[in-house]
Amino acid sequence: MKALRIAAAALLIIAAIGAIGAKYFAPSGYAHQFRETPDASPSGQHPLGTDELGRDRFARLLYGMRVSLLLAPLAAAVATALAAFLGGIAGYFGGWIERCLMVVVDLFLCIPWLFLLITVRAVLPLNISPEASVVVTFTLLGLLGWAASARVICAGTRDMMKSEFVWLARASGFSGLKLLRLHLLPNLKPTLLAQFWISIPVFIIAEANLGVLGLGVSEPLPSLGSLLRELQQMVTLRPEPWQFVPLLVLILVVSSFQTLLNKHEVRV
Amino acid sequence: MKRLRRLQFLFALALIFSTTALPAQNGGELRFCLSGEPKTLNPLAVQDNQSETVAYLTSGVLVRVNRITQKAQPELATEWKVLDGGKRIRFKLREGAHYSDGTPFSSADVAYTMQKLMDPALHSAVGDAFRSSEGKVSTRIVSPTVIEIIFPAPVANLVNLFDTVAMVSSASPLKEMAALGPFYIAEHKSGSYILLKRNPYYWKKDSNGRQLPYLDAVRLEIEQNRELEALRFRRGEIHLINIVSPAIYDKFSAQDRGLVRDAGPSADTEQLWFNQAPTAAIPAYKLAWFTSTNFRRAVSEAINRDDLARVVFRGHARAAIGIISPANRFWFNDKLKPHPYDTASALRRLQQDGFHLDNGVLRDKGGNPVEFSIITNAGNPARESMATMIQEDLKKIGIKVNIATLDFPTIIDRITQKFNYEACLLGGVNGDLDPNSQMNIWLSSAENHQWNPSQKAPATAWEAEIDTLMRAQASSGDEHKRKQAWDRVQEIAWEQEPFIYLVNKDALVAVASNVKNAQPSALRPQTFWNVEELALK
């Protein structure tokens, strides 16, 4: 298991280096259209060939990873922070506050995410740059994706509030904030981290779903999701294995996150 | 004796060859897909493509526009005469025609059909085409086989309009479900399929006197996914695909060149336009750009249409010229040529309006950077690719384009109700060869005058001129005068470019190798316009 975790970590590091150094590894850039060679096979100039508009697939993969690997953790951080705040309040106070907040959580869990995202995306300003669109997309994912984590954190906080060390701390006159800082947050840390790690692949896949619908990151900026759109044309797919590389990368990245996550889950 | 045997052998051989050379065999079930459930089975109330397909296969019409020659040819009417400059038309009907339940067809049915069609409660798009002015459409039955239809004012393109008017029965207990066409609806399983069976009373015979249609049945499978439709075609589950994407065309073509056919440029268009509505929720300086002819022409010249056709449509499209596609032989103004791709000329035009380049960024005379968004419908890869290529092209003249792909209902809401968009890339479907059907787009007062709809008075002199020309052609029965008016409208549209026409896609179709007598056309319905002559090997 340790070797697997090392391999997963190494893979994520390689992916991160590739994404960060995209400018150096793929100098042609993700937007340049080599219009004379659309749908080209792999070559020295284009290691993964070109897409239907003649854009270098390798460059788009590296920049797409940058978008997905940098912003999915940010969205996960936003979602985990929201979940910690609302789930923590619900677990700490209990009673009608917990019931009300859990109704809100249930409501968020019932809402069909995809349709909500499509609706929210439709009412956003049209004149936003691709860079802004990607931030907006992942922020939306973060703002809407906290509910499941909040339920877990609420349960964890509630259990902790019933624990003997918290009773002792309260009996010793610890105030709410001091209790939070010294006892609750340190003990909730593994749960929060686990929720953070779980959210990252969830958001990468959610963006991929939006990308497949053409509603995620704006052109010409790529994301792992928008790169998967090529695979939609299953009938027209030629036997070109390099077209599956973004899918393979997505699977490897998500699996690596899950492999690393297992360690955190064990700790919890 | 030996010689006699040889003669007998030769005779038998000749007989075999003559039998195999027959145009078609009777029988078989033709299968193809509808992209959704038909909204209505009433042939007079059709609005959507699916209903139109069912109506085409089951209805009898007075005249039919031949999709190859583009000329009207007799169907249930053997003769016709346009009278009073297009205010009246007299039809002589075919004798002995019967509906699918055996009810005879006569002038009373034509009169009944026109009465139903023009009933405002039906909201028939087909009926709207006949509403040239206020007043009632009346009919006069001269005899059981002769009828006159009288209109309050001349109707443009009068004869060809009857290509879409399904003759419904006044006497049959089945009413509009009684079919006069080659097939009748035998089964309908909602969301799954519609089974059409051969109309035993169909009047048409082939040149050898054989009863048409050759087919026993047509099964219309409801399949929303175009990729699955292609997969089913490849598996041999369906025989025809009316519209094939360029990618699928190339794939099938590589496997078997005979499976797909490029029927040439279609009548459909793909266009970009800027929002010029004065009430639009966009800054005044941007509205000033969009209402400037120089700005629109510059954008047009900076778009490489040949690249769009070659890259996005894999060569199965041509640079568009204007309102009317070159596929429409009579109405197309062949003096016009596509706008050239010329970034230097585009920049010169922009300079005339005070635009200037500043470190690669185009700025207007107020110093505002030129940046706008293009909306298009999500899930249409060709349009998304075109928008991305236009984005790249306009970057070369310092214009920044942001692309927003939205779901279709949101786009329609924005372009027809809220007007909160800057530029839009969509396509136009032209089912009717006569451009008179585009009145609802080109009249400045029209709701579908997309760049600036429902104007109380024409906002510009050129729109006023188009209004005048449109009204003149609509009330004229003289085709040559109408053609002159339309030529001028095409010139104005070419000069002003309220719509920046991008490409005319080719009509790409797929026809299974066991389908005989198929003559795909660029006009709808591309593969089965001669369904009564289609046969299966």
Explain this structure:
The complex is a heterodimer of chains A (268) and B (537). By secondary structure, chain A is an all-alpha fold. Chain A has one domain: Orthogonal Bundle (MetI-like fold). Helix content of chain A is 71%, strand content 0%. In chain A, helix 1 packs across helix 11 (245-267), helix 3 (57-93) packs parallel to helix 6 and helix 9 runs antiparallel to helix 11. The longest helix of chain A has 37 residues, at 57-93. The two termini of chain A are 18 Å apart. Chain B is α+β, with helices and mostly antiparallel strands and 537 residues long. Among the domains of chain B are: 60-179, Dipeptide-binding Protein, domain 1 (Alpha-Beta Complex), CATH 3.90.76.10; 269-506, Dipeptide-binding Protein, Domain 3 (Dipeptide-binding Protein, domain 3). Chain B has helices spanning 2-20, 49-58, 107-117, 125-128, 158-161, 226-234, 246-255, 284-290, 293-302, 305-312, 343-352, 381-395, 408-418, 439-442, 461-474, 479-496, and strands at residues 29-34, 63-65, 72-74, 77-83, 88-93, 138-143, 146-150, 183-189, 193-198, 217-222, 240-241, 260-265, 269-274, 317-319, 356-358, 361-363, 371-377, 400-406, 423-428, 499-511, 515-516, 535-536. In chain B, the strands form 6 sheets. In chain B, strands 11, 12, 13, 14, 17, 18, 19 and 20 form an 8-stranded mixed sheet that branches. In chain B, a hairpin with a 2-residue loop joins strand 6 (138-143) and strand 7 (146-150). In chain B, helix 9 runs antiparallel to helix 11. Chain B is globular, with a radius of gyration of 26 Å. The interface between A and B is medium-sized, with 29 and 38 residues.
